[in-house]
Amino acid sequence: MKISLKRKLIFSFIVVILSSTIISGIISNYFINKKFNDYLISEQDTKIQNIISILQDSIKVNNDIRYFNKDEITRYAENQELYIEIKDLAKNTIYSSGNSHFTRRDNMRRMMNSMGKNSPMMDAKKYIEKEYPLKYNNSVIGYATIGYYSTSYFSLASINFLSTLNNSLIISTLIALLLGLVVSIIISKELSKPLVNITAATNKMRQGNLEIRLEEKGNTREISDLSKSVNYLADTLKNQEMLRKRLTSDMAHELRTPLTTLKTHVEAFMDGVWEVNSDRLQIFYEEIERLNSMVDDLYKLSKLEELNVNLNLSKLDISQELRKIVETYTPIYEKDGHLLLADIEDNIDILVDKDKFKQIIYNLLSNALKYLNSHGKVELSLHREDENLSIIIKDNGIGISKEDLPFIFERFFRSDVSRNKSTGGSGIGLTITKSFVEAHGGKISVSSLLGEGTCFKIILPIRN
């Protein structure tokens, strides 16, 4: 049986608070009782030393152990719950306070027990008796025997103190438990509610509702980050769904056109409307080539899906290689009345896959050429940027709309403008370009304004 996060948090908080309170209460109670007991024992020792001092003072005044204020000693013994016995050197008893007051002490203890104010230390009744020498002029002239029960130093005030202390620990435990319960409910609600909302939203996404978005409220950073991630996932899935539908539509359109042409021509041959000649066979050949090209693109895409680009790295003078590419493309640009300019920094050597690097530049230069207006211009530049090199290819062509710009590296994506041009291509050239750049540990970015032109920037690390 699975338990909700809210209940788990509440239960965990209660267990932690209860355990912590009980453990701290037991430890505190143990040390407080121990210290308090030590204090009472110390007080008892002080009482005994007081009676010895009284006896010693009487001996100094009267020069004899037999003369002292017996009434004072008796009152002291009764008040302090002590048994006092005085003996001479021959151990003959001179004075005894008796033990009748111990009976009254036992009666008081039983009364306290009936009131629920007993103490474990008070119940541990043990008689203790000690003998102390009485001196005159540094010579022992007698002995004072003082006895008491181990519970005798527990006065009513001390018992009330311990009882109040224990009660306060119990009350504080209950209050801490109650506060912990309230706090745990509040915290668990704050944590579980957004998670419940996130779960509900992701379930709706799973059912196909990609329009749903989470509100990034609350002050918990992890929850906020999770909400942002889910929203980003929804945006990505929505875009992928849009691209999938667009791909299906585009591919259907692209395949239908050559197939329709081939079908029409075959029917004309079969009906005897047309005679077979080289021109019409040339049309067949061109349409088949178009189909073959689309199949090749699909094959490239399938390889791209499992892309784990294996680079054949070698040291290459990028400056010299780019100049060769520019020399190759300059006549192609000039043929259509366009201009290709280059600003290339000298002597930049890096480790790179030569063939894939050439394909990157070929794709970008070919792409720029397709979308130039009359007498267009493309500028290619190469410069160092710290530990990287920067390649910029900028044109003044038709540009890319703001809506299409985020998707141009997606496979089979073509803007509405490019789809209306006969040179639109299959839409995976930039996808392959981006993959090759990233395989080299680099980055490619694009900026564009519709009707003004497009700028691609490649950053590659300089690795020697």
TrEMBL record:
<dbReference type="InterPro" id="IPR005467">
    <property type="entry name" value="His_kinase_dom"/>
</dbReference>
<keyword id="KW-0472">Membrane</keyword>
<dbReference type="InterPro" id="IPR036097">
    <property type="entry name" value="HisK_dim/P_sf"/>
</dbReference>
<dbReference type="Pfam" id="PF00512">
    <property type="entry name" value="HisKA"/>
</dbReference>
<feature type="transmembrane region" description="Helical">
    <location>
        <begin position="169"/>
        <end position="187"/>
    </location>
</feature>
<dbReference type="Pfam" id="PF00672">
    <property type="entry name" value="HAMP"/>
</dbReference>
<dbReference type="InterPro" id="IPR003661">
    <property type="entry name" value="HisK_dim/P_dom"/>
</dbReference>
<feature type="transmembrane region" description="Helical">
    <location>
        <begin position="9"/>
        <end position="32"/>
    </location>
</feature>
<dbReference type="InterPro" id="IPR003660">
    <property type="entry name" value="HAMP_dom"/>
</dbReference>
<keyword id="KW-0808">Transferase</keyword>
<dbReference type="InterPro" id="IPR003594">
    <property type="entry name" value="HATPase_dom"/>
</dbReference>
<protein>
    <recommendedName>
        <fullName>histidine kinase</fullName>
        <ecNumber>2.7.13.3</ecNumber>
    </recommendedName>
</protein>
<keyword id="KW-0418">Kinase</keyword>
<keyword id="KW-1133">Transmembrane helix</keyword>
<dbReference type="GO" id="GO:0000155">
    <property type="term" value="F:phosphorelay sensor kinase activity"/>
</dbReference>
<keyword id="KW-0597">Phosphoprotein</keyword>
<dbReference type="InterPro" id="IPR036890">
    <property type="entry name" value="HATPase_C_sf"/>
</dbReference>
<keyword id="KW-1003">Cell membrane</keyword>
<feature type="domain" description="Histidine kinase">
    <location>
        <begin position="250"/>
        <end position="464"/>
    </location>
</feature>
<keyword id="KW-0547">Nucleotide-binding</keyword>
<keyword id="KW-0812">Transmembrane</keyword>
<dbReference type="InterPro" id="IPR004358">
    <property type="entry name" value="Sig_transdc_His_kin-like_C"/>
</dbReference>
<feature type="domain" description="HAMP">
    <location>
        <begin position="189"/>
        <end position="242"/>
    </location>
</feature>
<dbReference type="GO" id="GO:0005886">
    <property type="term" value="C:plasma membrane"/>
</dbReference>
<dbReference type="InterPro" id="IPR050398">
    <property type="entry name" value="HssS/ArlS-like"/>
</dbReference>
<keyword id="KW-0067">ATP-binding</keyword>
<dbReference type="GO" id="GO:0005524">
    <property type="term" value="F:ATP binding"/>
</dbReference>
<keyword id="KW-0902">Two-component regulatory system</keyword>
<feature type="transmembrane region" description="Helical">
    <location>
        <begin position="140"/>
        <end position="162"/>
    </location>
</feature>
<dbReference type="Pfam" id="PF02518">
    <property type="entry name" value="HATPase_c"/>
</dbReference>
